[in-house]
Design brief:
The protein has about 140 residues and is α+β, with helices and mostly antiparallel strands. Helix content is about 15%, strand content about 40%. It has a single domain, classed as 2,3-Dihydroxybiphenyl 1,2-Dioxygenase, domain 1, CATH 3.10.180. InterPro entries: Glyas_Bleomycin-R_OHBP_Dase, Glyas_Fos-R_dOase_dom, VOC_core.
Length: about 140
Amino acid sequence: MPPASTIMPPFHLAFPVADLAATERFYVDLLGCRIGRQAEKWIDFDFFGHQISAHLRPEETGLAKRNEVDGDQVPVRHFGAILDWDKWQDLADRLQKAETQFIIEPHIRFKGQVGEQATMFLLDPSGNALEFKSFKDMSQIFAT
């Protein structure tokens, strides 16, 4: 496996949504994603340099079960992005100003330990859990 500092190609993730218009507003207007290709039942987004595809499948949406991680109840099924420290803070500030309802408020996890990180969790309009995190020291991403 290449070291964490190696530039990696973008990943692709497809996920179900209940409402494409609400999904578009959330990912574009709130998170700042660009729209890529789209059709009647799906939209591709540029999600911080990665390609995610929202597919209209309301029957497949819903909340994931949660596990405890460092005192927080983290949704087991979630996706997100690891951002530079300043970009993470800018996003946290923007989301707080927009009065976003977090399922886990922006904070520092594993404070003073290996893998210390900034993290926050929120839900998209279909109940998909998203985590945004950052490390002051990116070499800590895979630290044990």
